[in-house]
Amino acid sequence: MNGPxxxxxLPADLRVEWAAEIARPPVVxxxxxxxxxxxxxxxxxxxxxxxxxLIASTLPVGSIRRIPHRxxxxxxxxxxxxxxxxxCVNLERLLQTSAxxxxxxxxxxxxxxxxxxxxxxxxxxxxxxxEEIDLSALQKLRxxxxxxxxxxxxxxxxxxxxxxxxxxxxxxxxSLQEAIE
Length: 181
Known about the structure:
By secondary structure, the protein is α+β, with helices and mostly antiparallel strands. Helix content is 19%, strand content 39%.
């Protein structure tokens, strides 16, 4: 069938303009003073704010394969994270968060945390996603919070009438490294 060509080549100047537009890095809106974007997720009964530069991905909860002869400690087992075998750490046990009042299994997610060349999976009960948290008025952790949780936190911020424990990336990584060694 010979008909009019509906596909035309782009003019050279337009091609150069579009290539420059596509190559330009995205504009990241600067956070307002004292505010930081954190991935907010519930672990146990506590809402935690994870630094987004530690998050490699979030995945649906899948099966965790137990490691033979490892029935205690903070390691739950091995998790298949899109074809990569990753150690799964029980963050609720590691940080000794408060007990969850009720669990909604359909909202559970796996966070794949990454630093340098290490990846670790942690199960969260639910996740809000990236939230802008006001760090200008950080408060102390609740009385009775575990030393483990206090050791990895920067403090507590109130976000949407909910206390969110803001995690410190370096101290969380150190705690996770200790758990997997």
